[in-house]
Amino acid sequence: MYWKLNKDNPISDNHWLVGQGQHVTTKRLGTLREIFFKAKQVLRKDTIFSLDNWKFWLKCAREEFRLHKYSHDYNPNLSKFQNDETFPECIPDYKKKLDRKLKVVFFSHNLNYEGAPNILLEVVRGLKTKNRIIPVIVSINQGPQPQYKDLIAEGFCVHQLPVLKQNNMLDIEQGIKRVRDFLLEQKPDLVVTNVLVTFFVVEASMQLGLPTLWWIHESYEPATMVKNLPPKSFPWVKKALNDVTMTLFVSRETSHLYKNYNQKLNYRVIHNSLDVNKIKGATTSANRIRARKELSLDSLKKVIVSVGTVCERKNQITLVEAAKILSQTHDDFIFYLVGYRESLKYGTYIFNQIKKYQLEDVVKLIPETPNVEQYYLAADIFAFSSLNESYSLTILEAMAYGLPIVTTRCFGITEQVRFGTNALEVDFKNPIMFAQKISILLDDQRKRKRFGKNSLEIMRYMQSKEEMLEKHETLLFSLYYLYTKQDV
User: Fold this and answer.
1) Exposed, middle or buried, 261 (CB in 10 Å: 0-12/13-18/19+)?
2) Are residues 240 and 319 in the same domain?
3) Of 200-209, 372-381, 422-431, 471-480, which range is least confident?
4) How many structural domains comprise the chain?
5) Which residues contact 348 (CB under 8 A, 6 or more apart)?
6) Which of 34, 59, 90 is the last residue in one of the domains?
7) 433-459 burial string, b = 16+ CB within 10 Å, else e?
8) Do the strands 405-407 and 381-384 form a parallel or antiparallel pair, or are they unpaired?
9) Are residue 286 and residue 342 in the same domain, yes or no?
């Protein structure tokens, strides 16, 4: 096994480099990502070499090169899609082939301040700044849309198309018709739809012959899918999974759950990313002091924060019960559960349990807000009790703010944190174990600081936001060209 050297794509994902039976990482070499961008030597592009030659490898690594797996048995012409394990120069640059912008309609099940819509809108905003995509954003939910006005103010074309009702076959067929009529009016080049419950968007767009990307965030095994989807919709979901042009996931673990539907071998994975530089500029001692002062925190009080919609899937009751256990031995901490939504019954349940356990001074329930930075800046520990995820954005945020993490092993988590290095693992629905692991970090300042520093170090060599946006843009252009059979 050999590796091909390429200067156009610097090292991004936190990946292993494998050669000649050895496992090599940047950490094992005693260096970090920034080292790869500092040297002055100029090496000839496309050099092929063996990783056995460590001195030569290190010399190459000091330049802005990325290593790509190369096998004499692999034919890169078998696939034209962007893939981290193929040569970028073997993939046509579809963006250069098109002298106009692509009009893309992005469907979301809502525009709330929560995981999947936040991830979608972050990508849409980034693609708009790159000025090659004309985005149209559609929410298929009715009622208040917290981010609707923000998007209008930012100059986006935003529509509400309330077609989420799926009680019977007539509802589904009417939803397909409304989406189809909307797409006929908009005349997009491409359709992107978010989460499983938008399956009827796939059906409508495929009926019109539009290339369609289905962005699935739910980590559902078959039984879980049946449980969480309306009964009448399940056959439509299976049909859409088989028909859609391409399916996108945010973690490899989640994509593996749907492997039985990957008949076309059209699955892609792009991890979520953050603008780390923006966050890094905010994480100053002065801002931390200000944030804690605004929250009226004692200088000795340690802050444990958990960010995410307060709902059954996030399972915040485990954190409330852990706080009750911790309060029996510690009086130097406070919990902030950020993401309370009054319309959700589970939020009311958590509120009542806090009151029942007389934890009003220990656990604070904070409504959903776009301004979560204050709580990250004030925090000492990040706690995550979720039962089901794909690739949590809040875990990335906690790492970017330099926090040690106590978390369950949800789908995608192992593609983010390093247990024993910046995170401690806890079993699902286990408040006693949560209390024990949080107590370790509360009592051991050196470990708490070390884990927090390691979170920052891990973020330094993970995929950047710019790299993520480049992957999304490349995927959209390649999808358009390959589906419409353009001459490339």
Assistant:
1) middle
2) no
3) 471-480
4) 3
5) 342
6) 90
7) bbbbbbbebbeeeeebeebbebbbbbb
8) parallel
9) yes
Name the residue among 41, 43, 60 with its Cα closest to residue 3.
60
Distance between the two ends of the chain, CA-based, in angstroms? 31
What average pLDDT score do residues 58-75 get? Answer: 44
Query: Which tens digit of pLDDT belongs to each residue from 164-188?
Result: 676 678 888 999 999 999 999 999 9
User: Are 480 and 190 spatial neighbours (Cβ–Cβ below 8 Å)?
Assistant: yes
Show the tokens assigned to 48. 């092929």
Decide if pLDDT at 351 tops 70: yes
Distances (CA, A) of 267 to 7, 247, 263, 270, 343: 27, 5, 10, 10, 35
The answer for residues whose C-beta is within 8 angstroms of residue 426's C-beta and 6 or more apart is: 385, 406, 407, 408, 433, 434, 437
CA distances 160 to 137, 151, 179, 368, 369, Å, are 9, 12, 11, 21, 22
Query: How far is the C-alpha of 141 from the C-alpha of 428, rounded, in Å?
Result: 31
Residues 456 and 469 in one domain: no
| Same domain assignment for residues 434 and 451 | yes
Q: What percent of the chain has pLDDT over 70?
A: 80
Residues in CB range of 105: below 8 A, 6 or more apart: 136, 138, 183, 186, 188, 190, 191, 192
pLDDT at position 361 is 95
Please tell me whether residues 269 and 281 are part of one structural domain: no
Question: Running DSSP on this structure, what letter comes out for residue 90?
Answer: G
Tell me how far CA of residue 383 lies from CA of 418, 428, 463, 478, 486, in angstroms: 15, 13, 23, 39, 49
Residue span of the structural domain in which 437 resides: 276-460
Residue 272 CA to residue 421 CA, distance in Å, equals: 21
Q: What are the structure tokens assigned to 110, written together?
A: 């809502």
Pair of tokens at residue 128 = 């708009």
CA 104 – CA 134 distance, rounded (Å): 6
Burial 24-58, CB ≥16 within 10 A → b, else e: bebeeeeeebeebeeeeeeeeeeeeeebeeeeebe
The tokens describing 158, both together, are 């935003």
Q: Which two tokens stand for residue 220?
A: 């559902």
Tally the C-alpha atoms within 13 A of residue 339's C-alpha that lie toward its C-beta: 21
Q: Per DSSP, what are the bridge partners of residue 70?
A: 2
Phi/psi region, residue 46 (left: phi>0; alpha: psi -120 to 50; beta: rest), is: left
Q: How far apart are CA 333 and CA 356, in angstroms?
A: 19
Query: Has residue 272 got a pLDDT over 70?
Result: yes
Q: Any idea what the Cα angle at residue 313 is, between residues 311 and 316, rounded to 5°?
A: 60
Is residue 16 classed exposed, middle or buried when 0-12, 13-18 and 19+ CB atoms within 10 A define those classes?
exposed
| Rg of the chain (C-alpha set) | 24
